[in-house]
Specification:
The chain has about 100 residues and is mainly α. The chain has four helices and three strands. The longest helix is centred in the C-terminal third of the chain and has 30 residues.
Length: about 100
C-alpha cells in the first residue's frame, strides 16, 4: 500500500512540475485591441479570414487569447514582412540595372 501511495505522490509531483512550466497567460479583448492598436471589428474580420488567432472560450460569454498564440502570430507577421521586403529590394536591384 505504501508503494502505491509513494508512486501516486511521485506522479502528482511530476504533474505539478509539468503544469508549472506550461502556465498560460490569457489576454482579454481590450488588452488585445490595445496591444495591436486595432478596433474589435478588425480583429473579428481578420479571425474570420484566418489572418488572426482565434480566441479560446473562457465562459458562456467571455473569450481570451493565449499570449503564446499571439506571439506566434507576431513572429509569422515579422517573417512575412521580411520576405516581402526582400522581394521588393530584389525587384529594385533588377530594375536599376
Amino acid at each position: 500500500m505504501s508503494q502505491v501511495v509513494t508512486a501516486r505522490s511521485s506522479q502528482l509531483h511530476q504533474l505539478e512540475l509539468l503544469v508549472s512550466h506550461v502556465t498560460k497567460i490569457i489576454l482579454r479583448r481590450p488588452e488585445v485591441t490595445a496591444r495591436y492598436g486595432l478596433p474589435t471589428s478588425t480583429l473579428y474580420d481578420w479571425m474570420a479570414k484566418g489572418l488572426f488567432p482565434k480566441p479560446i472560450q473562457l465562459g458562456p460569454r467571455s473569450v481570451g487569447w493565449c499570449v503564446e498564440d499571439l506571439e506566434r502570430w507576431e513572429i509569422e507577421r515579422m517573417q512575412a514582412s521580411a520576405v516581402a521586403a526582400a522581394a521588393i529590394n530584389a525587384k529594385k536591384e533588377i530594375t536599376t540595372f
